[in-house]
Amino acid sequence: MFAIAITLLALELRVPEIEEAGTLLQALAGQWPAYLAFLLSFVTALIMWANHHRMFNYIERSNFTFMLLNGLLLLGITVVPFATSLMADYLAHPPDDTIAALVFNGTFTVTAVLFNVLWGYAVRNDLLDKRLPPEFGENITRQYRFGPLLYLAAFLAALISVPLSILLNVGLALFFALPPSLVRRLVGRGN
Amino acid sequence: MFAIAITLLALELRVPEIEEAGTLLQALAGQWPAYLAFLLSFVTALIMWANHHRMFNYIERSNFTFMLLNGLLLLGITVVPFATSLMADYLAHPPDDTIAALVFNGTFTVTAVLFNVLWGYAVRNDLLDKRLPPEFGENITRQYRFGPLLYLAAFLAALISVPLSILLNVGLALFFALPPSLVRRLVGRGN
Amino acid sequence: MFAIAITLLALELRVPEIEEAGTLLQALAGQWPAYLAFLLSFVTALIMWANHHRMFNYIERSNFTFMLLNGLLLLGITVVPFATSLMADYLAHPPDDTIAALVFNGTFTVTAVLFNVLWGYAVRNDLLDKRLPPEFGENITRQYRFGPLLYLAAFLAALISVPLSILLNVGLALFFALPPSLVRRLVGRGN
Amino acid sequence: MFAIAITLLALELRVPEIEEAGTLLQALAGQWPAYLAFLLSFVTALIMWANHHRMFNYIERSNFTFMLLNGLLLLGITVVPFATSLMADYLAHPPDDTIAALVFNGTFTVTAVLFNVLWGYAVRNDLLDKRLPPEFGENITRQYRFGPLLYLAAFLAALISVPLSILLNVGLALFFALPPSLVRRLVGRGN
Questions:
Q1: CB-closest option in B4, B10, B47 to A81
Q2: How far apart are CA C160 and CA C155, in angstroms?
Q3: Is B10 an 8 Å CB contact of chain C?
């Protein structure tokens, strides 16, 4: 599902129509918002995929509710190509770029919440692999906990400045690309 | 196949063209039928997926006929994105919304019938896993039996009122999201 | 790959534009060639999928050449959605329906040839599972042998009559849906 | 992911609009750049897929960094359908065909670099299967080493002649379709 959604992102890359008296090179250069949005979404979706994959490495059992919660998370993922298209088309057209950035980072905020919901359900309902040392799961819990608030910050930042909002988004993607054990050392105070 | 069809649903979410003197926000708000149709289809397809998955958990053997029957069921699934597009485009344009709702719920009615055909074939041809207690299968049989009639009701309701038809559709999706053992206690008389 | 190509077939089902003074029902009815082409392609691709799946059940080893030959077969499969679109758009517009039917059945003819090439390579290079009784493989060889010639007949029939060509296509799909052991009894003379 | 990207290539094959006083046959013939670009991309992507598959046969362990590097490689792959569309639309429209060929071969150049980065990381970080004889890995290293330079040559050739650039691309695809052990005998000097 991640694989499909990520590959569909590339459908956003559309062959440009050349305007009169222009060249293909100019037309391609004029598409920079589409490339930026594609790259941003690709990297974010890829990191989400790696996180989802890692989460499932720790999960041994499943049940119907878990499957439905996972489905809700996938709902967030399937909306990413749409949010990306919106960014690609309106990033260079203020003031509508604000709405586009709100939808874009709003999608990721909701997805971050759903990641926490899914993981929390797995922890509380004892679906994890018991042979793993408990700090594996705790590290994930600690890293995920930041997601919703930080993406909410990127979401709200769009109201002030769209470039700032995008910058925060990039920073967040990199944060979630860090291994959870490193994050713990960086931000964890206690054990 | 479910994963692909579900992800393709999101292609229906199209970046809106802004009409003169409007904003992106207004344009997005004007797309509510597309969002409603997408959500409805996503949730329904997701629940179908979970049911299909659960059904296959009980099935141990397969044969050529079973594969072809399963293929017919998948035919129903692949048509869902089209039926969703139709709803998205015509939900706000009566009287054509009736036709759109008929096609939408008609697709699910046929899919519900095909679910029963596939499951019935598996039961009659002894393709189930024998180690499972028989009531597992019986619970599924009981729950599925309601599908075609209830979706037919949602289908016919579209002739009277499109919102009623959609409401029934939502209710049905929720009904099939219930675990079969619970359904049995709710509606089962015997045993 | 089959799953993706089959699901993409459904993209051909496009929400119709309503012409002036028409209803959605009329617009949908006017799309019958798209539905016919979709159904035909879906059923054919499904049966190809089942055959491909069965073929791979008998194959135990693989090598680089086999992978590339399999890739060529998949090339045939990925073209099916395009050939289907062509049929959908031109079936009701003679004389171009002849060209569309030629491309449609030509695609299947080439695919049938590639099925034979792939299977023949597996047989000659000893990639089959040795524990299977030899008549399993022989039955497949016997059934596949008919494919190219019969699809060629459907291809050539398009020059005389497009409906005849489509009818042959339907018949062929059904023929390949038969289990190989039955085909052997129907057409096999020896052993 | 390869499977999806390859299947999406076929979306580039669009049913032609017939111009006035023309036939479907003429319209299809006029689409030759689309067919050429599709074939080229399909074969290249298929060979990449086979190589990626073979590479993963030798890899036994994985880690988060490896997953992200693999994701970057997949980024290259998902751009292939876009680069193909560009070729399809501008191959017959000089001077823009030069830009299209640069983007096309540039995509493959970057992908070739990423293949080397991924493989090099696996070798250096001891992710390979230790039971394999070391020359398996060395043969791959040797063959991949040529990729970036040769694709760069095809990239630069586009500045001189687009057909030459395409010819080099075809040659390169065939080169990577060769088994690594054969390549070693052809170009290797030492052991």
A1: B10
A2: 10
A3: no
Of C38, C41, C39, C13, nearest in space to C28 by CA:
C13
What does the DSSP 8-state code read for residue A14? -
Which residues are A128's β-sheet partners?
A59
Nearest CA in chain D to A39: D75
Distance, CA of A179 to CA of A143 (rounded, Å): 9
Kindly give the residue spans of alpha helices, DSSP state H, lying in C13-95.
24-29, 32-57, 64-90
Dist CA A112 CA A117 (whole Å): 9
> Roughly how many angstroms between the first and final C-alpha of chain C, as a whole number?
37
What pLDDT, on a 0 to 100 scale, did the predictor assign at position C191? 42
pLDDT at D135 over 80: no
Q: Is C59 helix (H, G, I), strand (E, B) or coil?
A: strand
pLDDT digits (tens, 9 = 90+) for B45-62: 888 887 787 788 788 777
Nearest to D73 by CA among D22, D112, D35: D112
Tens of pLDDT, residues A41-98:
888 888 888 778 778 878 877 777 788 788 888 888 888 888 888 888 888 777 888 8
Length of chain A: 191
Q: How far apart are CA D20 and CA C174, in angstroms?
A: 39
Instruction: Indicate the average pLDDT of chain C.
Output: 80
Say how many residues make up chain C: 191
Which 8-state DSSP code applies to residue A132?
S
pLDDT in tens, D177-187: 776 666 666 65
Of C67, C85, C96, the CB nearest to D50: C67
Q: How far apart are CA B46 and CA C50, in angstroms?
A: 25
Q: Are A38 and A84 in contact (CB under 8 A)?
A: yes
Q: How far is CA D141 from CA C51, D117, D154, in A?
A: 37, 11, 21
CB C2 within 8 A of CB C77: yes
Residue A42 structure tokens: 């690709």
What is the nearest CA distance from C129 to chain D, expressed in angstroms? Answer: 21
Residue at token pair 């974010």: A44
Task: Tell me how far apart the alpha carbons of residues D53 and C160 are, in angstroms, rounded to a whole number.
Answer: 46
- Under 8 Å CB-to-CB from B78, ≥6 apart: which residues? B1, B5, C6, C7, C9, C10, C42
Contact A86, B15 (CB under 8 A): yes
- Chain C touched by B129 (CB under 8 Å): no
Cα dihedral D76, D77, D81, D83 sign:
positive
For testing the chain A interface, which of D78, D102, D159 should be mutated: the one with the most A CBs within 10 Å?
D78
Note whether A63 and A125 are within 8 A (CB).
yes
Which residue from B78, B86, B100 is facing C6, i.e. has the nearest CB? B78
- Other residues' Cβ atoms within 10 Å of the Cβ of residue A149: 11
Supply the pTM of this predicted model: 0.75
Share of chain D above pLDDT 90, in %: 1
Q: How many CB atoms lie within 10 A of CB A176?
A: 21
In angstroms, the Cα distances linking A36 to A138, B14, C129, D78, D114 are 34, 19, 50, 15, 20
Structural contact between residues B111 and B48, judged by C-beta atoms closer than 8 angstroms:
yes
Write the secondary structure of D99-148 as one string of H (helix), E (strand) and C (coil).
HHHHHHHHHHHHHHHHHHHHHHHHHHCCCECCCCCHHHHHHHHHHHHHHH
Helical axes D32-57 vs D162-177, angle rounded to 10°: 30
ipTM: 0.73
Residue D191 is predicted with a pLDDT of 41
**Rama region for C21: left / alpha / beta (φ>0; ψ in -120 to 50; rest):** left
**B3 contacts A8? CB cut-off 8 A:** no
Please provide the distance, in angstroms rounded to a whole number, between the alpha carbons at the two ends of chain A: 36
Helix (H) or strand (E) holding A179: none
**pLDDT at position A189 over 70:** no
Q: What is the mean pLDDT of residues B170-174?
A: 81
